[in-house]
Amino acid sequence: MNDPFAPVPPGTEGMVELVDDAGSIHMKWDNGRTLALIPGEDSFTVISQPIHLLKLYMPLAVKLYKRNEYGSLDDDPIELGGREVLEYEDSIFSAVLRERMPDESERGLMQYYGENDSLNQKVQSYVFTVEKVNGSLMGVAECRIQGDLTDNELGMLKDTVSGQASDGFGEGFEQRFIKIPDGEICVSLWSSEKSWSIQTQDELADQEQQMGGMTLG
C-alpha cells in the first residue's frame, strides 16, 4: 500500500464497502482498519467467493402412453405418480442429458438470461436433471452460485428457471417422447396445477418434515 504513514500490512484481508466517484475502494479490513485502496497506486488482489451448488426442486408431470395389441399408442394417457415414475428414472435422466446443447457446456441455460445484473454475475450456470426425493422422482435445476443470493435474487432465479421449465428447455423436452418397453412417456418439468412450485432443498425439507420426513438420493 502506497501510504507512508500507516499502511494496511500486506496480506490483510477485508470486505469492500463502497467505491466512490473518484474510484477509491473503501474497505472494512479484518484488523479493524478502514483505509481505502487507491487503484493504480496500491497493490491488491480480489478474492473470489467460492462456488457452491444450489438445487431447486420441482414436481414432474409424467404421462404414460401404452401400446395396444396392435402396436399403436393409446390415445388416452395414464398419469403416473412420483413413485411410479421411479421405474423410468434412468430413461428420463438419459433423455434430459440428450437435450443439453454443446454451446451450453459453460453456463448451461444461464446463457439465455439476458440481464446484466447481480444475478447474472452470481449464477455461473444451471442445468436440469432429475433426482429421487423421498421415494419420488423430481425435476431439479442444479445451479452453480458464486457467493450468496439475496431473497430477491433467489426469487429472480426461481422465475427464470420456471420460464425455462415451462417455455424454454422444458417445452422442447416434453415434446420428445421417451420410449419405454411398454410404450412411451411424456415428461414435463412444469405444470399449470396449483401444487406445482420450485423449492430449495431447505424449503422442501421443511415441507416434507411436516409430512413425516425427507430422504434425498
Features:
single chain, 217 residues, alpha+beta, 2 domains, 4-stranded antiparallel beta sheet, 6 helices, 24% helix
Q: What can you see in these coordinates?
A:
The protein is an alpha+beta fold. It has helices spanning 82-85, 89-99, 118-122, 151-166, 169-175, 201-210, and strands at residues 14-19, 25-29, 51-59, 61-66, 78-80, 123-133, 136-146, 178-180, 183-188, 199-200. The chain is elongated.
What Rg do the Cα atoms give?
A: 24 Å
How far apart are the first and last residues' alpha carbons, in Å?
Answer: 50 Å
Helix content, binned percent: 10-25%
Describe the main β-sheet briefly.
Answer: 4 strands, antiparallel
* Overall structural domain count: 2
Biggest sheet strand line-up: 6-7-3-10
Low-confidence stretches: none
Structural class: alpha+beta
Q: Tell me the fraction of residues in β-strands, as a range.
A: 25-35%
Short structural summary:
The protein contains six helices and ten strands; from the N terminus they run E-E-E-E-E-H-H-H-E-E-H-H-E-E-E-H. It is of the alpha+beta class and 217 residues long.
Chain-wise SSE layout:
Layout: E1 14-19, E2 25-29, E3 51-59, E4 61-66, E5 78-80, H1 82-85, H2 89-99, H3 118-122, E6 123-133, E7 136-146, H4 151-166, H5 169-175, E8 178-180, E9 183-188, E10 199-200, H6 201-210
Antiparallel strand pairs: 1-2, 3-7, 3-10, 4-5, 4-9, 6-7, 8-9
